[in-house]
Amino acid sequence: MRRPTVIVALSPDERAIVCAELEAAGFPTAIVVGNQDLAEVLRAEDLAGAAILDAEMDIEAATGLADQLAAEGRGIPILMVAADSQLERLAARPDAARTEFVMRPYSADSIRWRIEAMCIRSQVAGAASTSEDAVMTGGDIQMSWGQRAPVVAVFSPKGGVGKTTVATNLAAAVQVRLKKQVLLVDADTVTGHVITSLALDGVRTLNDAWRDVPENGIADSFLDVSTNHISGLKVLALTLSPLHTEMLDSDHVMAGLEAARRGVDLVVVDLHPSYHPLNLAMFGAADQILVPVTPDIPAIRAAVQFTDVAGELDVRDRLAMVINRANSGVPVADIERTVGMDALAHIRSGGLLFVKAGNVGRTVIDMFPREKITEDFVALADRVLRGAKTHVAAAASQPAPASGLRGALPMLGSLFAKRSAEPPLVRPSGEG
Ligand SMILES: Nc1ncnc2c1ncn2[C@@H]1O[C@H](COP(=O)(O)OP(=O)(O)OP(=O)(O)O)[C@@H](O)[C@H]1O
Ligand SMILES: [Mg+2]
Fold this sequence. Notes:
Blueprint: E1 5-8, H1 12-24, E2 29-31, H2 35-44, E3 48-54, H3 59-72, E4 78-81, H4 87-91, E5 99-102, H5 108-130, E6 151-154, H6 163-177, E7 182-187, H7 194-197, H8 206-211, H9 222-225, E8 227-228, E9 234-237, H10 250-260, E10 266-271, H11 277-285, E11 288-293, H12 297-312, E12 319-324, H13 332-339, E13 343-347, H14 353-359, H15 364-367, H16 372-386, H17 393-397, H18 404-408, H19 410-421
Parallel strand pairs: 1-2, 1-3, 3-4, 4-5, 6-10, 6-11, 7-9, 7-10, 11-12, 12-13
Antiparallel strand pairs: 8-9
Bound molecules: adenosine-5'-triphosphate and magnesium ion (MG).
């Protein structure tokens, strides 16, 4: 399915950069310079996902276009470039609820992520408005079991930080120790290894199942396709081969996920370290996004990057950091300060326990119930279920390093430097 068209009404120099970025991300763009153009685009285009208007350049023209979009009645969301002094007037407009604002200077990249998020939200809202109970707000975990299970996604853009380990053992801790039915989804379509680490043989993947649907037949649900693990977990892999993802259109997968929430108590999703559209859709659907961070510079840098991206996608408040292999490397308090987030939980190094459990297709939770690392995962499970953003007491009470973060950790300090020095791609008009 193609991505929705983005209507762009920016000045010529800015729109060239913004359109190039959007098109590189797969969004067709339609440039409009006035009401006449907009009317033609709306007539020709039945899949318009969002409109970028520029109130700062000309507020009357921009609100004129916004009025035309409102009158047209499709509820196309608007990303409005505005000056601070215009916000009050614009926020009082009747279409304010579907308008987001951006101020100069902005980068084309940040616009692209905003548009991605707006399209996800409007698709989700569209789907919800046709269902009987249109509640699709994401955010905090609801503890009403049996209704719509919370979705917890596990993600970091960095490989090897423990996403799969955290997803699998968190799922097992909720299943085995907290006695809730969990669906564990391996949504890493590139290098996912949930299935092999649990030694599940002959599994049917979602891609296989959906490919084999007879014409006019009904596709099997996530739960139909899932495999039962000895721990009681239901486990579903979207695919076992990066070459076989043809049935995994993001919209279909998200609709399948939404349906599966009615049949279990918790859904845990393991993701590939990339910003693939499927991952962005998962961020949009997740109630909580766990970000495993190992105590080393590349993993911390990845977490910093992801918090920025999550801000652009408007899902920053769903992030919760899990320090993995917490008992080594950079101190937890320094990681928290650098990433700008307190840790939801710490998982210690498990050494060979993971290898031993993996060799026989078990999790450390059911194989080593008395080990301290199992208790770490049970504590994480408990906090996830309570939706608590509780700080880990030990970390919160750690004193700040005497010389300050940058003095103590010059490499971490340079992360901040890089972020603030990054020039915007698009400058305010008139600036050189
Ligand atoms: N707390 C831990 N103690 C000991 N070993 C661990 C721990 N966490 C993860 N590992 C090991 O580190 C390796 C990488 O972990 P894992 O596969 O979970 O990372 P990932 O983030 O999912 O990687 P990828 O990005 O490739 O999917 C695995 O061999 C795993 O067993
Ligand atoms: Mg993984």
